[in-house]
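Hi L.,

As promised, Lipopolysaccharide assembly protein A domain-containing protein:
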Amino acid sequence: MKKQVYVISSLLIVILIAIFVLLNMEDTAVNFGFATIKMPLILIVLVSLLLGALLIFLFSSISSFKNNRQNKANLKEIKQLQSKIEELEAKIGVETEVKDEKQVTEENSDNEDEEK
């Protein structure tokens, strides 16, 4: 069903573009300052559209590149912080075990004292 909707919408867009082309076939003068060129209006519109799309692609590529670089730096920092967390958890675990052993030893000695 999605494929049919895609095909039908694509055909409608192509038909609309064809109608737009037929309506804009008259020659139009474009003044570049140093020269004036006559060309069909549709070519002017399409060239402008393509140049705009190219500029958008370039600017978004630059932004995407910066974001990817920042993401890599963030991932590296996350890995470093996770290893630091694991290191600290291991250290706390050792200290907790030592405290638990002391507590058990003290309880045992208290129990022995009470028995005597």
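The mean pLDDT is 84.

Thanks again for sending the construct details.

K.
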